[in-house]
Design brief:
The chain is of the alpha+beta class. Helix content is 32%, strand content 14%. The protein folds into 2 domains: 60 residues, no CATH class; 51 residues, no CATH class. It starts with 6 loop residues before the first strand and ends in an 11-residue tail after the last strand.
Length: 119
């Protein structure tokens, strides 16, 4: 049964896409574990796992328009993978949202319907 399946959403309640994705999951009968990642940021290991599941490098998961991105000069091509991940741990606002984990897979809810592919 769907409701018993473990679904996790890295959620920002102030983000429209994040709210839409959470609503979509709930409308489909899922009761996801909600992690407000700005209050409880993922650690380095969790980010590494999310990147692996998404098949992305760190910049692919980063919100490049954020002030923190520019201030930390994260667009510098000499930045290492570890430096970029550490920046996301320190400044979780840099992490694209929402991220949904289910069935050993991950998806970014942009658009929200994209997460249905992993359920």
């Amino acid at each position: 049964m769907k409701k018993n399946q473990t679904v996790t959403i890295y959620h920002n309640p102030r983000c429209t896409k994040s709210r839409q994705t959470l609503q979509l999951l709930q409308e489909r009968g899922y009761d996801p574990q909600i992690i407000e990642y700005l209050k409880t940021p993922p650690d380095k290991a969790a980010l590494e796992k999310i990147l692996e599941l998404l098949g992305l490098e760190p910049r692919g998961l980063m919100r490049k328009g954020e002030d923190e991105y520019k201030a930390a000069q994260l667009d510098d091509p000499n930045r290492t993978r570890d430096e970029l991940i550490e920046a996301m741990v320190r400044h979780p606002i840099l992490i694209e949202r929402p991220i949904v984990l289910a069935n050993g897979k991950a998806a970014i809810g942009r658009p929200p319907e994209k997460v249905l592919e992993i359920l």
